[in-house]
Known about the structure:
With 111 residues, the chain is an alpha+beta fold. It is 35% helix and 23% strand. It contains 3 helices and 5 strands, in the order αββαβββα. Strand 4 and strand 5 form a beta hairpin. Bound molecules: zinc ion (ZN).
Amino acid sequence: MDDAAVERVARNEAVFRQANERLRRRVPEAHALEEPIPFLCECGDERCTTAVPVALDVYERVRADATRFLVAAGHREPSYERLVEATPDYEIVEKIGRAAEIAVGYVPRAL
Ligand SMILES: [Zn+2]
């Protein structure tokens, strides 16, 4: 995959991540921590509309590192994503190389 393609994919993922951030902000205070929230798959496929229901603490764990993304099981792109955590329902992936640099530049929340 060349740099331009990696960049395009990374920008798609940033859009999904921003949508998830908006969703996360709408979660009421009283929401039970273990109750899954239907976050969007943050994979590089712009047509992907898979919901990835995870508990808020899982999402927060992903978001704590700007290079990490939440994707549906099997949606990882091995050429620029390293597997961090796999479950039957979702995977946490970490960007590598140019994809990681772009991801770090697209942090939607204050550090
Ligand atoms: Zn996906």
